[in-house]
Amino acid sequence: MLESFIRKVKKGYWTRGGVWQWDWYIHILFAKTMSFGKYPIYLGYEVPVFGDEYLDFYKEAEILERFRDFFKDSQKTKKLLIDFDEICVSANKLIVELKNQNFDSKKYIKKQEDLSLLMGSVSLVFDEIIAHGVSEISKEESVSEADIINYILKNSSETKLTESNNKLLEIYKNFQKEFEKVDFNFEELDPKIKILLVKHTENFGWISTSERGLKPWSPQSFLDQLKVLVKEKQPNKERLFIDKVSAKNKNLIDTSAKINSYDNQAADKQVELDFLFKNYLKKKMGMYYIEEITQNLIFEELIEVSKNPKKIRKYEERYNNQLRLVWPEGGSLHFYYFKDQKEFQKIQNLIKRKRSKTQEIKGTVACRGKVEGRVRIIKAYDDLKEFKKGEILVAFQTQPAYVVVMAKAAAIVTDSGGITSHAAIIAREFGIPCVVGTNNATSLLKNGDKVLVNAIDGRVTKL
């Protein structure tokens, strides 16, 4: 089957997009039709390999054109929001069940698929539609796009990270002198404050576990975030404009905010479900649980070893073997594990990268501001170690594990994503200038470049 994949790659079936780190086990939706009511959205292909490479969506342009006027149909829009809400509500119920160690594999994977489809529809379709709508409303109502985007983000910030930050700030207000006295060092805090932070960690530590190999945040991790919040966070000033907008356009803006909110909720719920599932596996497998192997199994294999932990031995060749290829063909998924880095590189080099057709770096403003600084390219989690306070963080896209570093960035620039993206939410949370969806920042910039990030008109310029 690998030969069949190679033939398709050589014919140009796929091009290689950006790089991101994948979930801790392998389960990906390929060539799926997701349907909310009667309105299907075709996702297309992804091929994850080490680090993970994702490939172009299938017929993306045609999909966007077909859905361009989606929001003009109130019945479709209403149905979409109802379906999104049902997905999130049922995910909450499943989270409660998993916390009580009640696990149903069919229900679990179905809910993960629903959440993935919700987020996929936003990133593939609705992000673009919202951006188009913002542009049209801006022209029609003589209101700046940045003000509309800020309003949407402000009214859709129901993330677990925001909840965590707000609770941390509440603790800080009650014990401000104690925190300042020990310079936010957990070990030196009063025991009663430690108890509060440990409890906070139990409730929110899982937020950072969205990528393989990452551990839950510790109490000190939260203190590091708190230190940034109280010393560097600048409130975003909102311009009051919404009351001047026509009822029709206000409804479109509010609908965009609701979609963004459901997208944020779905991302949080998916990470928490994965975290709880991993803990369930640990308890079921006991001494046979080996994360270096389980993180390289597909979902069905994980269920197999959870029922018979000793069967983990038959997958010993997967130990720390992250060099894998997954592709759809003939109506099913095919998996291939590479023998070594050399074999992997040979296949990886066959997949052509997208080449930027322009030298201009321009995207969507997610949080306003203007700043100069040195570039730091973040391609994988390990790159975060090199990041220095005040640098410009440039990435294909950001992940929850990047938050502590993002809070120290002078500005954030991403290749992908729109106003509903993780980078946009975090940038606004910390008041950091941010430009998203440039498509080419990581390919045109390199570490150490001095740039001007103009997060007013969405341009990034080399100096």
UniProtKB/TrEMBL annotation:
Pfam families: PEP-utilizers (PF00391). One of its GO terms (molecular function) is transferase activity, transferring phosphorus-containing groups. SUPFAM superfamilies: Phosphohistidine domain. Residues 387-458 form the PEP-utilising enzyme mobile domain. Gene3D superfamilies: Phosphohistidine domain. PROSITE patterns: PEP_ENZYMES_PHOS_SITE (PS00370). This is PEP-utilising enzyme mobile domain-containing protein. It comes from Candidatus Woesebacteria bacterium GWA1_41_8. The lineage of its organism: Bacteria, Candidatus Woeseibacteriota.
